[in-house]
Amino acid sequence: MNIWSSIKKGTLIAVVFLLACMLSVTQGDTVVQVRIVRMPIIVTDRENHFVTDLKQEEVQVFEDKQELPLVGFEKEEEQSIRYVIALDTSGSFKKILPRALKTAAQIISHNAEKDETGIVRFISSDKIELAQDFTADKAKLIESLSHLNIAMGQSAVIDAIYVAVQKASAPTNTLARRSVVLISDGEDRNSYYKFEDLAKLLRQTRVQVFVIGMIDELDKEAGFIRTSQRDKAQKLLTNVAQESFGRVFFPRDNSELQIAAEEIANNLHTQFYIGFNPTNQKPGQHSVDVKLTRPGEKLTLVTRTRYVIERPNEKQKP
Q1: Residue 23 backbone dihedrals phi, psi, to 5 degrees
Q2: In degrees, to the nearest 5, what angle opens at C-alpha 158 toward C-alphas 154 and 160?
Q3: What would the pLDDT profile of 147-165 be if each residue is shown by its tens digit?
Q4: 8 Å CB contact between 286 and 307
Q5: 3-state class of 69 per DSSP?
Q6: Angstrom distance (rounded) from CA 173 to CA 13
């Protein structure tokens, strides 16, 4: 039996949460239990472009300084996706909104037939609204963007991401990959949730967040003991992307904005996965070290390096 095929067909829900999944595999007349971890990875080059030609021999996984042989390597392009676009419509985004809406439409235009997208617009904590429920109708999605406008309020970026992640991760009958695309200047003034609350939710749901930070209109002047608005927003948006194992872009002009949209659309639809047998058999959370070996190129790896071995008879949490 092909172990990697068994994972993809029979235990997809478990492994996308990076559980060390137990499989019963027949070897001759013997049935053996095999633990497999299936891990998504994103690799970018020195220009922050997604590397689409990654090869299995260029990826190494180590646990306790011991290299683990890969039992699977896959470039997944056919998986349907279900994602939320969270759009900032607070007052600080007034000059930026037209370009943000165009960028959202650009991302939506890449949707495949079975992909579903929802649109959340946000201002303050009490003004986070589902502007368009999940649909595969691209025309309907793009039409809904035209109805978004600026409103005044104390911007609540963290709260908006929290709500968007909840909506993206809500249970459905499909095994679609779940993500959030955030388009914002990152200026958070009055969120109910703290970043630690959001980080906990991201770890629980494993929803990737892809961020376009349009921060050029924010004040870049810092005080004697005060961080500038721009630096504070950039730090928040970077931390969100890192915590969710997504990507963040800070475009400086329209050309870079278009590139960011293309990169995100590519990552939404294309992911590499590696599979390995962990050496650690104790229940709990464990870490591995993933390295890239492509001589002559500076590559950056985005992945989840933690996996969980559950206790016997322990049920997977939703």
Answers
A1: -120, 140
A2: 80
A3: 999 999 899 999 999 999 9
A4: yes
A5: coil
A6: 12
